[in-house]
Specification:
With about 450 residues, this protein is α/β, with parallel strands linked by helices. The chain is built from 13 helices and 20 strands.
Length: about 450
């Protein structure tokens, strides 16, 4: 748990709060640097990678990492809470593997924003910015504005460029149309993720741009590139030329191909992550545990940012409006408990946990009170975010919810703060200016890093 030493810093932060959780841009950079230099601990070593697990649909904070055992039955639900390896920290009984590892994690129990619908909530949580000030679902394609965190890292991370700076799997998630929070937005398509899809029937991962087209081998591809160069890069533009070069490098990348081939992993390791029932059923849901395994392989291959989307299909995702208890117990919690715990242990055993930040979040939480259908409805007023690795203070809980899990009780935290925290851990100043096509300036992140977590 955190001590009162945070109070002075956070009360000063409170002066910057404006309206419904937005932040004034005035002098944020100076404040961030002053706090980093004086009142806050010295910066830890920047991380090399981040794995963001997005629990699409909105997980219940009460049925996962913020149980309320003393609340009325219609709030606490049917699950018990269990003790964990972190003294005083209790979580849901259906997360036994994670309970053993809570001394390596930190929980934010006071995340909040104002978007009650999936699209607007996802945009806010995955970019740190609300959807043009509105709360709505999208029924027609909408261009993305602000970048996803992986795209921000791909564009601004200090140090050498990476062959694949940002990857996402195992699909593009959507409500009706693809939700515009999964790419680079105003930073440009060059910083979009490499999209990795799963073939559930073959139990394999594939990247469409890496699939050889009929009659077009590596020789013809390089010949085309040489022809393009001989015609002059000016005719295509330098940006397009850079994209061609990147595409050719990816096609030649043996490291990426090896990383995608999870059949190289020992069967015991694949089973530890969760291999699914198999039997030729071809359900993508059977690959949920393998998504975590692939993320570890990508990090090992040098990919700085990996997004895992869990999960797309209605009835298999976290949007449990009915029968919340049975859905969590039978479909939702077991694969996350197994896959996430395996990821933490595996990264730790390979010496990669300290340099890899794991972030687990949904677009919002669920209503404290169970509805007439035995489910919980959308509730952005309070949710939980789990962090692991990347230098977090293991066993910590930052902020708290009230006795019903309805609203933040202490240290309210916003998606902007999460954005700033991720960028800061990569050594990127969250107050860096980015610009749209009209050259209008914006802050990369509007919140403040939760430095005391590290």
């Amino acid at each position: 748990m955190f001590d009162p030493a945070l109070t002075n810093i956070l009360s000063r932060r409170g002066l910057l709060q404006f309206g419904g959780g937005a932040y004034l841009g005035l002098n944020l950079g100076g404040l961030w640097r002053a706090q980093a230099a004086s009142q806050l601990p010295a910066h830890p070593k920047p991380i090399r990678s981040c794995i963001l697990v997005f629990l699409y649909g909105g997980p219940s904070q009460i049925d996962t990492f913020d149980p309320k055992p003393d609340a009325p039955a219609e709030v606490r639900g049917e699950f018990k809470s269990i003790a964990t390896s972190a003294p005083g920290v209790r979580i849901c009984e259906h997360l036994p593997h994670m309970a053993r590892l809570m001394h390596k994690t930190a929980i934010i129990r006071s995340m909040h924003h104002a978007a009650h619908l999936h699209d607007s909530g996802s945009i806010h949580m995955l970019t740190g910015r609300p959807l043009d000030g509105t709360d709505r679902e999208l029924f027609a394609p909408l261009p993305q504005v602000f970048p996803s965190y992986g795209s921000g890292v791909a564009a601004l991370k200090p140090g050498p460029r990476h062959e694949v700076p940002f990857a996402s799997l195992p699909f593009v998630f959507n409500n009706v149309v693809p939700t515009p929070c999964q790419g680079a937005g105003i930073l440009g398509s060059a910083h979009d993720p490499l999209r990795i899809e799963v073939d559930p029937a073959r139990r394999e991962y594939q990247v469409d741009v890496l699939q050889p087209r009929e009659g077009l081998g590596q020789g013809p591809l390089h010949a085309r590139r040489q022809l393009l160069t001989s015609l002059g890069g000016a005719q295509t533009g330098q940006t397009m030329s850079d994209l061609y070069d990147r595409a050719i490098r990816l096609l030649d990348s043996e490291a990426l191909r090896r990383a995608l081939d999870i059949s190289r992993e020992p069967l015991r390791m694949r089973q530890r992550y969760g291999l699914g029932a198999g039997g030729g059923m071809g359900h993508a849901s059977e690959m949920r545990g393998q998504n975590f395994l692939l993320a570890r392989r990508l990090v090992e291959a040098g990919v700085p940012f990996v997004n895992i989307y869990d999960y797309k299909q209605q009835g298999q995702n976290w949007d449990a409006h009915a029968k919340c208890g049975s859905q969590h117990k039978e479909q939702l919690l077991p694969p996350i408990d197994q896959g996430l715990s395996a990821l933490i242990e595996d990264l730790d055993a390979r010496g990669l946990l300290d340099s890899t930040l794991i972030v687990v979040t949904g677009e919002f939480g669920r209503t404290p009170k169970i509805n007439a259908g035995g489910g919980r409805d959308h509730w952005p007023e309070c949710s939980s975010v789990l962090l692991a690795g990347g230098g977090v203070q293991g066993g910590s809980v930052y902020g708290s919810s009230d006795r019903l899990g309805a609203f933040p009780a202490t240290f309210p935290t916003t998606p902007g703060d999460l954005a700033a925290t991720i960028y800061w851990r990569f050594g990127i100043d969250p107050t860096t200016e980015i610009h749209d096509q009209a050259k209008r300036p914006y802050l990369l992140a509007t919140g403040e890093p939760v430095m005391r977590l590290f």
